[in-house]
Design a protein that fits this description.
Elements (H helix, E strand, L loop, with lengths): L9 H11 L17 H5 L4 E8 L12 E5 L10 E6 L5 E10 L7 E3 L1 H6 L7 E7 L6 E5 L12 E4 L10 E6 L5 E9 L8 E4 L1 H5 L9 E6 L12 E4 L12 E5 L1 H4 L14 E6 L5 E10 L7 E4 L1 H5 L10 E6 L5 E4 L13 E5 H7 L6 E6 L5 E10 L10 E4 L1 H5 L9 E2 L13 E2 L12 E6 L5 E8 L12 E5 H7 L27 E6 L7 E10 L7 E4 L1 H8 L24 E6 L28 H10 L10 H5 L3 E6 L6 E9 L5 H12 L3 E6 L7 H5 L11 H6 L5 E8 L4 E5 L3 H14 L5 E3 L19 H4 L12 E6 H5 L1 H19 L3
Parallel strand pairs: 1-5, 2-4, 7-11, 8-10, 13-17, 14-16, 19-23, 20-22, 27-31, 28-30, 34-35, 34-36, 36-39, 37-38
Antiparallel strand pairs: 1-6, 3-4, 3-6, 7-12, 9-10, 9-12, 14-17, 15-16, 15-18, 20-23, 21-22, 21-26, 24-25, 27-32, 28-31, 29-30, 29-32, 33-35, 37-39
Length: 839
Amino acid sequence: MCQDFNDNDDGMYRRSMLMSGALTATGVSSDAGTPLTEGEAESSQTSGSTYIKKAQSDWPEISDMYSCRVPDSFEGIGGGDIIKITVEGTTDEFYFGVYGTHGKGYSSSIRMGKNARERANTEVNDEVSWEKVDDEEAPSYIDYAKTGWYELGSPYTVRVPPEDSDLVGDFVQVSSLSGNGQSLYSVAGTHNEDYTLNTLRMSSAARERLGDADIASPVEYKPSSETSGRTYPKPTIEYAKTKWDNVGDEFAVRLSKGFFEHSEYQIDQLKSREDNIWIERSDTKQANCFGYWAQHDQDGFWPSIRMGSNARERLGHVDTGTQCEVKKFTGIWPRMGVALSDWGEEVGNALLCGINEKTAAKLGVEKGDMVTVRSRAFNQKRVFQVHRVYSDHETDRMRAVMRTARWGRHRFTNADGASVKNDSPRFTSPSEPDEVDKLTEDDVIGLDVEIEPFEPEEGQKYVGVSQARSEWDFSMTNERVFFHEELVDEFNILTKFDGEPIDRSFEPEEANVTEGWDNLRLHHADYPDDRYQAYTAYGTYSDDREVPRIRMTWFARRHLNNPEYDDEVFDKGQWDQDRHGVPRSFVVQLDTDTEYQVPNPDLRKPDIDEPALRNSTGTVEQEVQAIAEQGLPHANVYHPTVYEEEESAEWYKDSPDKRFLPFAPHGGDTEWRTSRICYYIAQELDTPYWIHEGYRETIGSSFDRWHTTSSDMRNGYPAIEALGFDWDYSLSIHGFTADGILVGGLLDQELRETYGGYLVEALPDEDVHVYGDDHPSWAESFAGTNPRNITNEFTNGGERNGRGGIQLELPSSVRTEQCKWVDVAEATIAFYRQEMNIE
């Protein structure tokens, strides 16, 4: 198995020459070292017994645990031969290579160094028996890898003696002869460390794969092609080296040269820092995409993938030695990154993102384009606008990255608070739960996403939302928003005020009020079918920001972002903190089509004059029956589409006689039972009426979705425009949560007090307050004295004949009990008949 070779290493040179008989034990050329003749062999000594003595310190093989010297008196044995030694009194057998002969004293002893004696469990002067054996009988032995070898520390590589150089680059099956260990290794090269016997040189990590085998353990090895096992091993995952420039990169990995030397792995055409690979674990089948960063030589020709801890985390915190399958990946597999602090616009706008050049080129997008981003872990789909195409950041390496700021990442954190099924390798490990109750913006950094170009439908716009300015003092309004002046021009939006409010006032006297304004529905872009709400286009603003936005107060953002918000659960002192479910920035979907107006005219069925008049909670059929049993007309006009799809609708009855108009602007579930009271009054007095009803029974309340402030209602409601603004008297019926009944509005104080007297007489157990000289402090918020309040607008702003309207606020206790709300209706009918001559 061995063959002559020429090498500069002194130890290997000596072994080669000894085996060929060219050197004596002292290294001097001698005829005594030449092969024996046939006659001499017959008389030579091939076995016997003797004693163990020390080797001389200046002998080259002094530290070799496999070498010995025999006396020159032993005829027929010399350098290059192999003997088997057994210590007297034991049965253990040890093989040694004869380095040469000796003739100085103790001429009958076998001499060896300390390491060799320790391997044979023998001491100086121990008696041993010996016999010469054939080369093929002696096994190979495991020994240390040499410091400085490139694969030092690899668990998968070995080096073989030079005579087996044809195995370099191949795989060998190594079997322990002292135990049951067996494993496959890559032959990284040959070594020149043997003096006599053959050794397999391997690291401690490689020795561990042979179980109980260790230094000096006997082994045998064969090419894997000669075994019944797998010819090519499965690729394995290993740790990256700390000195590598990609050690902290969660995407970039290094592949060993084994991938490129063996066609079995079919990825020899990979380009470093350009191509991607797909890695799938063999045990859990978890898989992910990685970038091929560079080749490494840590494991010789063994197919290993070296990656840092961040990259291993993306495969479920994979351990070293895990087997996997690897193939080339040609798609785009981006991850979510963090917007850089100096980017500016992207830092505070949830709509915007930055995409690196590689991703943009593959997608065919540029700045200003819209893209759809879907998280692979949670299947959440979000729309973003590309605001920046940037050169690869040093931490991006070769990975496709979509970078967005905190509020953009927040859109993937499951803001509604429900549990999210955790199927992502990035969040899965044996020690982690299967569900994540609440993710943070930091959790989604590095999340794998899919990106594709997105084309909004005609007339559709995605707009970023941010906080209202602190000087506007709008902390208590929930449906007033300000549009950037560019958005107003682009979508032809009519705002109530021409410009920004001033002097910290809701409706500054110096501001110009337009003759008409829009009430629109804004949909949360991430939940467009579920989260939408009526908003008033209240005013405009301008700034030097590059991307126009809509500005909202905390209340306005709360209703659209977190409809289940509970004031008793969250700390009001931290209103603007995202941990309370009210982010400062998010994205809305704005549409100029009629579908997004308030209300939706398409939902008004033809030939319907009366409202649904919801009687109680229950099914549609139960409520229709309840209405019919009370003898009310048109009970069958209940609009199931309105109820089931959680929409709004309005009903009205007009007349040339413009004397009196009762109306319920927040009927349905918005302010419950106000539409019933209104309809009762209108039927008894045979007058026109107007009712707007809103319904919502999923997340949040109808109030959050459909309540528009009374002073903002003049525009956006088709029925209001049809009814006109020249009525003698008007009565708006509302519901609130305060204690007692409140009579407000701009109608003459004396008339309102008279009306209050009718209510006191009908409901003696209820507190009735008339807004005026003496009223509780809470009444200020419900006074109805703004000239633009719709009840005053219907009477021409209170200017015609000195009249204005009445705003009636009823507590839930009155609206809930039938006898009480009927008493309110009867008292109201009596007041208008007897005091206003309405018949």
